[in-house]
Automatic annotation (TrEMBL), chain A:
EC number, as in UniProt: 2.1.1.222, 2.1.1.64
InterPro entries, per the entry: SAM-dependent_MTases_sf, UbiG_MeTrfase
Protein name listed in UniProt: Ubiquinone biosynthesis O-methyltransferase
Keywords linked to the UniProt accession: Methyltransferase, S-adenosyl-L-methionine, Transferase, Ubiquinone, Ubiquinone biosynthesis
Pathway noted in the entry: Cofactor biosynthesis; ubiquinone biosynthesis
GO BP annotations, alphabetical order: methylation
First-level EC class: transferase
Binding-site positions, S-adenosyl-L-methionine: R50, G81, D102, M146
PANTHER family: METHYLTRANSFERASE, UBIQUINONE BIOSYNTHESIS O-METHYLTRANSFERASE, MITOCHONDRIAL
Superkingdom of origin organism: Bacteria
SUPFAM superfamilies (alphabetical): S-adenosyl-L-methionine-dependent methyltransferases
GO molecular function, one term: 3-demethylubiquinol 3-O-methyltransferase activity
Automatic annotation (TrEMBL), chain B:
UniProt xrefs under PANTHER family: UBIQUINONE BIOSYNTHESIS MONOOXYGENASE COQ6, MITOCHONDRIAL (PTHR43876:SF7)
Protein name: 2-octaprenyl-6-methoxyphenol hydroxylase
UniProt record similarity statement: Belongs to the UbiH/COQ6 family.
Keywords: FAD, Flavoprotein, Monooxygenase, Oxidoreductase
Domain named FAD-binding: residues: 2-318
Cofactors, names only: FAD
Length: 262, 402
């Protein structure tokens, strides 16, 4: 396995090259990640709701035409903790120039293999956001960190690093789980033990974050967090939707006060 | 026609489309290619308006403001008297909800094809014709289709709008259930002495329905269902004998008749695909469901498929989703499955109930129709349903672009 963090001037958008011998392993993993009825089915069901939220918030913020197929052409997006690329791919199709980061080599390999199958040019880097911030001067119009912050050891430092990579006038999206009794019941007991949507031990309730904490982590940065938006699951329709209930899953958008800088 | 409409709908939502057509377009636009006319539900006509072909088609479309349904009988000295019951639908009854739209429009198929074709050229949609599919397969995130021209097309999604006999459906291994009726429809156009006043008539004769569907310029499209043998015979008799049989069924209430143009014959049947999608293939219109044309719902079902599929695909594409996945295509199937299957089965029941000379059955359906006529809400629902305006309507059927 060779792993190169090739620079952007190599002409290839992909920042991660897969060793020939590893292609089949990653392709198999990609098939798993992207099987809409398989192991990651709950994530695939959840995905359109958050993608729609990101799309609509960005259309509104950057004043773009909603009827366009790829309205975000020319804008840079960073997907921190991209996993198998479930968000990076739709973001690329919507026109963003996408960089996907993941600390797991397996995830980056998987995401690269899948993007290649679909002919999508996405720069995937096997790095942490701290490493990227040190090595790269590039700033992004949009930074996403979706369902990641509850897995890192120092969430405040992590979020501030993410915020430092947002271009003036840009947007930061954070999605996580709230540290409430309800979240314990639904996300830990319900999703991990009863429904077995995600493997046991996926989440540590103590590391869940309250919206006020997200807000305080961003104190002193230029970014102004908006009120949190809840994402709720309706067991009757078996669909996810945006809601006022931020007790379990929620998202926060933090914006630069002035968009004219772009 | 459903396929061409889909191409325009997808293009309007910013998707890139290639349209493969087996027949050369010049042939399809010729009068001798297809003599049929289609009843277009008003909601389906709204979709064409939204897609920019409404103005052209309106010139050729004949409003259908009323429909009379009678339980007919064959002419002859020993024929029983017609039962006093008949069904009457009038657009006035639902005009408060439809804004004076008719129950539907009658348009000749060749006019529909011509209008759609011209708009497709106008929109710069890639048209590959004449060409047909010889093979198809999947390769990662793409479907690949080999054409007999030697070209291979690659796209995230392939839609089969091939009609009842679908090569793509067969190759994908989607099971298809077929029932053939022992009936063929003889179709021709007649010129009448008097105007039809925008009224359609459907006589349920024991051998099958006989429909008089209003066209512009005091013409009407005749859809005359008979057993295969009788229908074939009708195609071969001389003009005078054909006229004699025709006037016997049609009656003389609109004055004298002249048959204009050619006669066509189509075998009738019901075909239903077990799935509306598989892998990166989606079925549209008659590829998924070919129904008996008894109430003119065949093309309408296809056009309703178009509105639902276009909305699902355009919205998925805008969300950056891979439009060829089960997750996306299942939304389309869920939206359309109930309507398609229930309409097919109801139409099948109609054919079996009405294509029957049993006096007891005639009495039962006579009473049923009489009752049905006395309950306006039920009748209004049927009209709106046939107008494709019930249920969770896709945007295009409301006349809006996605």
């Amino acid at each position: 396995m060779t792993e190169t963090l090739n620079s952007l001037d190599s002409g290839s958008a992909a920042g991660f090259s897969i060793d020939e011998g590893e292609v089949s392993r990653f392709s198999a993993l990609a098939a798993k990640w992207w099987d809409v009825k398989g192991e990651f089915a709950p994530l695939h069901k959840f995905n359109p709701t958050r993608v729609k939220f990101i799309r609509e918030t960005c259309l509104d913020h950057f004043a773009l035409d909603y009827r366009k197929r790829a309205p975000f052409e020319g804008l840079q997006l960073l997907d921190v903790g991209c996993g198998g690329g479930l968000l990076s791919e739709p973001m690329r199709r919507m026109g963003f120039t996408v960089t996907g980061l993941d600390a797991s080599e397996k995830n980056i390999g998987t995401a690269s293999a899948h993007a290649a199958q679909g002919g999508l040019d996405i720069r995937y880097l096997n790095q942490t956001v701290e490493q990227l911030a040190e090595s790269d001067e590039v700033l992004y119009h949009v930074v996403l960190t979706m369902e990641v912050i509850e897995h890192v050891s120092d969430p405040e430092a992590f979020l501030r690093t993410c915020a430092s990579l947002v271009k003036p006038g840009g947007l930061l999206f954070v999605a996580t789980l709230n540290r409430t009794a309800k979240a314990y019941g639904l996300a830990i007991v319900g999703a991990e033990y009863v429904l077995q949507w995600v493997p046991k031990g996926t989440h540590d309730w103590k590391k869940f974050l309250m919206p006020e904490e997200i807000r305080s982590f961003l104190d002193g940065t230029e970014l102004m967090p908006e009120p949190p938006v809840g994402v709720s699951y309706n067991p009757l329709t078996q669909e996810w939707a945006l809601s006022d209930d931020t007790d379990v899953n929620y998202m926060v958008v933090a914006k630069y006060p002035v968009t004219a800088v772009l | 026609m459903a396929g061409m409409t889909l191409a325009l709908a997808l293009k309007s939502g910013g998707l890139e489309v290639a349209l493969v057509e087996r027949q050369p377009f010049d042939d399809m636009l010729d009068v001798s290619f297809d003599g049929r006319a289609s009843a277009i539900a008003y909601a389906c006509f709204r979709q064409w308006k939204a897609l920019g072909v409404g103005d052209v088609l309106e010139k050729h479309a004949c409003r259908m403001d009323e429909i009379f349904v009678t339980d007919g009988h064959l002419p002859g000295a020993s024929a029983p008297k017609p039962l006093p019951f008949f069904l009457h639908f009038a657009s006035e009854e639902i005009s408060d909800r439809t804004g004076d739209e008719p129950l539907g429009y009658m348009v000749e198929n060749r006019q529909v094809r011509k209008a759609l074709y011209e708009e497709i050229v106008n929109q710069g949609i890639r048209l590959i014709s004449p060409a047909s599919v010889v093979d198809n397969r999947e390769d990662g995130s793409f479907a690949e289709v080999d054409l007999d021209t030697g070209e291979t097309l690659r796209a995230p999604l392939v839609v089969s709008a091939e009609g009842r006999k679908s090569t793509l459906r067969e190759k994908a291994g989607i099971k298809h259930i077929n029932w053939a009726y022992d009936q063929s429809a003889v179709v021709c156009t007649v010129q009448m002495e008097h105007s039809h006043n925008h009224v359609a008539y459907e006589h349920f004769l024991p051998t099958g329905p006989f429909a008089i569907l209003p066209l512009n310029d005091s013409r009407a499209c005749i859809v005359w269902s008979e057993t295969h043998a009788k229908a074939k015979a009708l195609m071969q008799v001389d003009d005078q004998l054909f006229y004699d049989h025709l006037i016997g069924r049609f009656g003389e209430f609109l004055g004298d008749l002249t048959v204009v143009g050619e006669k066509f014959i189509y075998p009738l049947g019901l075909g239903l695909a077990e799935e509306m999608h598989k892998g990166r293939l989606a079925l549209l219109g008659d590829s998924a469901h070919g129904i008996h044309p008894i109430a003119g719902q065949g093309l309408n079902l296809g056009l309703k498929d178009v509105a639902a599929l276009a909305e699902v695909l355009i919205e998925a594409a805008r969300l950056g989703e891979d439009i060829g996945t089960d997750l996306v295509l299942e939304r389309y199937a869920k939206w359309r499955r109930f309507d398609n299957v229930s309409t097919s089965v109801i139409m099948d029941g109609f054919v079996r109930l009405f294509s029957n000379g049993n006096p007891l059955l005639r009495a039962v359906r006579g009473v049923g129709i009489g009752l049905f006529n006395k309950v306006p809400t039920l009748r209004q629902f049927v009209m709106e349903d046939a107008g494709a305006a019930t249920g969770d309507l896709p945007k295009l059927l409301r006349g809006e672009l996605v």
